[in-house]
Amino acid sequence: MVLIRTKTTEEAWFGAVRAIWGTGKTLVTEDMDKTKEIFGLLIKISSPTRDNDKIPEHFQLKGNAFRQYIDQVMTYENKWGFEYTYGERIWNWNNKINQVEAAIERLSENPSSRRAVCDVGFPEADAKLKDPPCMRLIDFKIREEKAAPMLPVAKKLNITVIFRSHDIFGASYANWVALGNLQKYAADKISKNLGENIMPGELHSYSISAHIYERDFEAVKNMVGSLDEFVQK
Questions:
Q1: Residues with active-site annotation
Q2: DSSP-assigned states of every residue in the chain
Q3: What is the pTM of this model?
Q4: What total number of domains does the chain contain?
């Protein structure tokens, strides 16, 4: 397993891409796509980005496409005609359960709960899909933290997400920004329910297969070369 700790989401994306490019092993997928892969990548971001307009120069999803990617996580409505969306799965699972509000309710009733989880998978459907969801689980936990000995204890809502498969160069930055927005939404609602300030905390992302596709190799070379040049100046 590879562990990367960063402050910002942009730093996490740079670090993950460089780690896969530098140490990933070649894997040809069942769709005959050549990839470089790290098997087991854990990212810890202390201050997740929630700015939909702050997009790294080399991240290829831009403008409306980027905002659409973020928006589909924050609503149960599938306005785009996708086979499914993450938003459908967490806000209206099987047209029955709003898992986000259920998680918020659990933590509002008991901030130490370890049961505030959103399951993205739906085996009845996913077993038949050619492209089942890559993100499988979102977990919310409130923990107390002291930034420094002289500062008061702060309660923070941490979010952990598990991906069965994760396109790091092409999708991970947008995934993490969307999750940062979801984290902020939940923290604000729990704060209101409890009558105290629950701050957004860390974002933990565990990717079982973290990879870069061959179609992006040239763009990755350019990005890694630009970063190395910047560091050397």
A1: 134
A2: -EEEEESSHHHHHHHHHHHHHHHPEEEE-TT--EEEEEEEEEEEESS----TT---TT-S--HHHHHHHHHTTS-S--TT--S--HHHHHHSBTTTB-HHHHHHHHHHH-TT-S--EEE---HHHHTT-SS--SEEEEEEEEEEE-SSTTSPPEEEEEEEEEESSEEIIIIIHHHHHHHHHHHHHHHHHHHHHHTS-EEEEEEEEEEEEEEEEGGGHHHHHHHHHHHHHHHH-
A3: 0.94
A4: 1
